[in-house]
Amino acid sequence: MAGATTLRLNTAGSFGQTRFEARAATRETPLVKWLSLGTALTFFAVFLLMPLIAVFVEALRKGWETYLTALIDPDALSALRLTLLAAAIALPLNLVFGVCAAWAIAKFEFRGKHFLITLIDLPFSVSPVIAGLVYVLLFGAQGWFGPWLAEHDVKIIFAVPGIVLATVFVTFPFIARELIPLMQAQGKEEEEAAVVLGASGLQTFWYVTLPNVKWGLLYGVILTNARAMGEFGAVSVVSGHIRGETNTLPLHVEILYNEYQFAAAFAVASLLALLALVTLGIKTWIEHRAAHAHQDLHEGQS
Amino acid sequence: MNTATLASPFPRPSAPPRLRVLPGFRLTLGYTLAYLSLLVLIPLAAVFLKTAELSFAEFRDVVTAPRVVASYKLSFGMSLLAAAINAVFGLMLAWALVRYSFPGKKLIDALVDLPFALPTAVAGIALTALYAKNGWIGQFLEPLGIQVAFKPLGVLVALVFIGLPFVVRTVQPILEDLDAELEEAATSLGAQRGQAFRHVILPIVFPALLTGFALAFARAVGEYGSVIFIAGNLPMVSEITPLMIITKLEQYDYTGATAIATVMLILSFALLLVINGLQAWTAKRTGRDR
């Protein structure tokens, strides 16, 4: 499932002709070009651009004052805190997992490797609603561990730990999926040389592997972060929607919206939309840097 | 017989002991398996074990109840339709981004990933605002008698939004790697541009296009956040299957919710296998690493 999200090394520039336009055989007649370009861009504008603009327009419909009031509302602030907390726990957990999984899979040969990669991909193909449901089945009042948890006065479902678990589940594969193909492509000669020369395992990873995969790693981290802060379905199932306690920002948007406080709902939503834009900005920057590093490497070799 | 002995004059050594220079294999693989089992595999197994508490007849009754069946039809039908729309327009968008130069191209290229990055609830309320009767787009559709928000058509719009980057991002790299010489050869052999597209480009792109279609479909079937705001959620009319799970959960019908989840999980696993197969086919067709 990660196929569509992995880091692209796009070295083609946007200025001047593309290499296809430079040749007669692959150039279109102006009519064909403008028709297909026009259709594609109209589709883009209607389905992607307009929703994005609508968020900000609706957020500011009642003016800046309403906008700011919605953002500094205590419930909004507590939702923001919980969102940051969930991301701050899920991110390092999945980072450590991603690095371990990529090291084992990319640097060693063992049976069942492809099957393991498929299993790591599983959370991508599971509906977020089911991601929440599984933890209700385990830790809910009627769940397997429900009675034991109630006895020991531990709350997981309808409490913060459940939200963190659901967040970890939906962001599970991102970092591993970025690192595995990158580290496989790098091979293991450099690491083996480092170990033979006396480096410890951690030194090898830190000084040899990490510099080679840093862009992919960073890319995985921002994807994980964006998904962790924006997750709705899975968190909705385990949250219980207790205002000021178990509401994340996306859930807060839903509550405001269902109470017909549209301007406030869109104000909070605009924060999340900004987060998405920042994520896309960093992603584009990373792709740019990675493409340059890639080019330098190839020019250095030739 | 003789040639065989001649070919290997030395006795075959038994398989050399596998030398592992790099450290940390047991630790990292062990951690990977433990973390994967605890957070993903055991919780998912809980779905099947919980469903096993039902007899087959009970299971069948839950998953074939009319309201649930109506939700499958909506979810799968609209997901297929949305993936098909995305396959067509996603291919055109990828084509435009690879083949043509135009102002703002970099920005548009970056924004294609918006549905990946934008929280689904935000997409949901934004689309609802656009397609409501007085919305930017809805006000023009209303006189034509087309209602989108709070109708099944709204589900389609949300699923198109969600699935678009999957098609663009799987097709785009294949188009970028395409050899211009292939089309030159086709043209010099007398092919029209349309023929060259149909007989030269499309066969090369097709596996990736199908992969993008399958990815968009898989994502759409499970999608929840962006759909529930715009769907209206009328029983039998505009309820998606993930919403049925939520509805059962809210009624504390855990086994009912789990039975429907089982049906969806089995479908997801089947799709995952299909997608893996398609990606292998794409890699083979184009000689690209996955």
Q: Specify the structural class of chain B.
A: mainly alpha
Main beta-sheet strand count, sense and barrel state of chain A: none
**How many distinct beta strands of chain A?**
0
The CATH architecture of the largest domain in chain A can be given as: Orthogonal Bundle
Spans where pLDDT lies below 50 across 5 or more residues of chain B:
1-11
Measured between the Cα atoms of the first and last residue of chain B, the distance is 44 Å
Q: What count of structural domains of chain B?
A: 2
Number of helices of chain B: 14
Helical/strand content category of chain A: mainly alpha
List keywords for this structure.
heterodimer, A: 302 residues, mainly alpha, 13 helices, B: mainly alpha, MetI-like fold, 75% helix, 0% strand, globular, disordered N terminus
What does this structure look like?
The complex is a heterodimer of chains A (about 300) and B (about 290). Chain A is mainly α and about 300 residues long. Chain A is built from 13 helices and no strands. Chain A folds into 2 domains: about 25-60; about 75-300, MetI-like (MetI-like fold). Chain A has helices spanning about 30-60, 65-70, 75-105, 115-125, 130-140, 145-150, 160-170, 175-185, 190-195, 200-230, 235-240, 250-260, 260-300. The mean pLDDT of chain A is about 90. In chain B, helix 13 packs antiparallel against helix 14 (about 255-285). Chain B has helices at about 1-5, 25-50, 55-65, 65-100, 105-110, 115, 120-130, 140, 150-175, 180-190, 195-220, 225-230, 240-250, 255-285. Chain B folds into 2 domains: about 25-55; about 55-285, MetI-like fold (Orthogonal Bundle), CATH 1.10.3720. In chain B, about 75% of the residues lie in helices and about 0% in strands. Chain B is built from 14 helices and no strands. Residues about 1-10 of chain B have low confidence and may be disordered. Classes of the chains: A mainly alpha (about 300), B mainly alpha (about 290). The interface between A and B is large, with 115 and 108 residues.
